[in-house]
Amino acid sequence: MENVIKLIQRGVSQASKTTVQAKGQERKNENEASLLENIREVCHQLADNERWFQMECNGDLIDACIFQREALMARYRYLLALARQQGVNCSPFQNLYRP
Asked: Which Pfam families match (predicted)?
């Protein structure tokens, strides 16, 4: 009888460990997806900024465009460092463009 109780307790503890691990993996996947989405968004903003820079004629607005680009590049470097730190990988051939 004691052996049966021990087996049941082991099964319950293993099941709870598996559930905790699954939730942890799910959270990790959500964080990775969020991080990749942020990187994609910054890339799109950089592309928009480049188009704005090419079309702008006003000197003050050109300066504003340059400052915005510097801020976006700093954010991009931060996100890439964070992705490296977390071991996030992404295939370069994945669809990186918004529909």
From this structure: DUF2508
| Rounded CA separation 62/60 (Å) | 5
Residue 9 in any domain: the answer is yes
Q: Calculate Rg over the CA atoms of the chain.
A: 23
- Number of independent structural domains in the chain: 1
Residue showing tokens 């994945």: 94
Specify if 59 maps to a domain: yes
Token reading at 23: 């939730």
Q: What is the dihedral of CA 72, 78, 82, 88, to 10 degrees?
A: 40
Span 2-57, pLDDT tens digits? 776 766 767 766 665 666 666 767 787 889 999 999 999 999 999 999 999 999 99
